[in-house]
Amino acid sequence: MKNLVLLGSTGSIGVSTLEIVAAYPERFRVLALTGNYNVDALAQQVRRFSPRLVAVPDAARAQVLRELVPDRNVEVLSGLQGLRACAALAEADLVVSAITGFAGLEPTLAAIEAGHDVALANKETLVAAGALVTSRARALGVRIYPVDSEHSAIFQALQGQREAQVRRLILTASGGPFYQSSPEEIERATPEAALNHPRWRMGKKVTIDSATMMNKGLEVIEAHWLFDMPEEKIAVQIHPQSVVHSMVEYVDGALIAQMGVPDMKIPIAYALAFPERLALDLPPLDLCTLGSLTFAAPDDRRFPCLSIAREALRQGGTVPAVMNAANEVAVACFLNKTIQFGQIAEVIRATLEQHSPSAVTDLETVIEADRKGRQTARRIAAAKENAQ
Ligand SMILES: NC(=O)c1ccc[n+]([C@@H]2O[C@H](COP(=O)([O-])OP(=O)(O)OC[C@H]3O[C@@H](n4cnc5c(N)ncnc54)[C@H](OP(=O)(O)O)[C@@H]3O)[C@@H](O)[C@H]2O)c1
Questions:
Q1: CA torsion sign, 208 to 331 to 333 to 13?
Q2: Which of 3, 116, 169, 236 has a beta carbon 3.0–4.6 Å from 111's, enabling a disulfide?
Q3: Is the CB of 263 inside a 6 Å radius of any atom of ligand 1?
Q4: Closest CA to 246 of 262, 232, 269
Q5: pLDDT in the model for residue 366
Q6: Cα 97 to ligand 1 centre (Å)
Q7: What is the CA radius of gyration of the chain?
Q8: Ligand 1 pocket: which of 7, 106, 206, 266 to mutate (most atoms within 8 A of CB)
């Protein structure tokens, strides 16, 4: 029996994870759950999975949750302290990190500091603080299992191989909803169009990141830290069918790809049960019906966020944390319709131009870089809004 803590249980990854847990009650026990706004869904999850602890960031919502489950023997915590307490729960075997954005960093670090293995969906953790997180995980013997489908694919393609014999990693990208759009259409794209991802149903923030291709930029940084691979050895290829989830190229020219239907349950289940595979109730991938698979180079001109992220990784230090902060602010402004789609990259670039990079020595440096990055990005986004 594996004891799980699920950070971000009310989100897209969280719900898929609980579906797997529900299908395998003899394998997994849920010790703790966390959510944010969706207190009703969290209350239902408490009833269904009987965790000992739950937490939400806000004290008032924690009280609402207590009132929704008065008959349950569950402790309801609030604030960052509460999230950290769930992550660090002593009996946990694996902590699933599926909060969205920078908010996932501190709870994930708390899990690592408690010595718990982590199934990591929250890529922003490694983008903002990759050096810190991976060095603490190494020092404490903690394993980080990737949940992101691309990184899970690479992790799977590395099994039984020698990492020293890897020539490069190839991350695939669907291209998002605007893959075929003109620069003018992209510039004016609405939140509704950007949220209409052709292949994956995900939370709003990661869906917008997919449309700008920042998601692939974040994933290049994530791959750098997870697999200790330099930026120039991490390629990106557009693959609109989204069935080749990523590939590893070895020194002899062999290319090992992991394929499957685009469903996050596959990488989640692999991270939950590694090294075993769980039988999942999904349709098989039928390559004959699919007919052909295509691959193309990304277009930096229409989607500049990928090269912004690559440059941030090359610069290192606090730069990726500031880029991540600016991206989170810009995406929120776009969803609130205060800036245009094409201005997301402009806000990020302008924020980075105003940042004086420094080395990341500790968590406080990262938190401060994030705070300042958000402040600058909000100011830049507000100026754009006023200019419209
Ligand atoms: N969805 C995918 O297919 C997918 C694939 C690969 C990687 N990922 C990564 O996995 C992470 C989660 O993505 P998602 O699509 O599952 O996102 P999502 O559907 O938006 O869910 C996010 C979860 O985090 C909680 N949350 C949001 N802000 C929070 C905060 N400030 N403090 C504490 N909890 C907070 C949400 O609570 P409420 O819902 O209660 O507000 C929800 O439980 C992201 O880092 C994303 O990039 C997702």
A1: positive
A2: 116
A3: no
A4: 262
A5: 98
A6: 9
A7: 20
A8: 206
Atom 45 of ligand 1: nearest residue by CA position: 122
For the chain, domains (ranges, CATH) are: 2-146 (3.40.50.720), 171-261+299-387 (1.10.1740.10)
Give the separation between CA 174 and CA 199, rounded to whole angstroms.
7
Q: How many other CB atoms sit within 10 Å of the CB of residue 20? A: 19
Reported pTM: 0.97
Query: What is the structure's pLDDT at 197?
Result: 82
Instruction: Please indicate whether residue 202, judged by its CB atom, sits closer than 6 Å to ligand 1.
Output: yes
CA distance 84 to 339: 34
Which tokens is 194 given? 């950007």
CB 226 within 8 A of CB 153: no
How far is it, in rounded angstroms, from Cα 274 to Cα 281?
Answer: 18
Task: Give the pLDDT of residue 200.
Answer: 77
- The two tokens of residue 386 are 């006023």
C-alpha–C-alpha distance, residues 220 and 231, integer Å: 7
CA distance 226 to 130: 8
Q: From CA 356, how far away is CA 207, in angstroms rounded?
A: 30
Residue 121: is its pLDDT beyond 90? yes
User: Which positions ≥6 away from 367 have C-beta within 8 Å?
Assistant: none
Quick one: pLDDT band at residue 225, thresholds 50, 70, 90? very high
Residue 173 and residue 295: Cα distance in Å, rounded?
9
Please check whether residue 301 is in contact with residue 347, taking contact to mean a CB–CB distance below 8 angstroms: no
Q: Locate 59 and state its tokens.
A: 């004290």
| Element containing residue 351 per DSSP (H, E) | helix 343-353
Dist. CA 53–CA 84, nearest whole Å? 11
**Tokens (6 digits) for 338:** 């205060």
Single-letter code of the amino acid located at 123? K
**3 state SS of 54:** strand
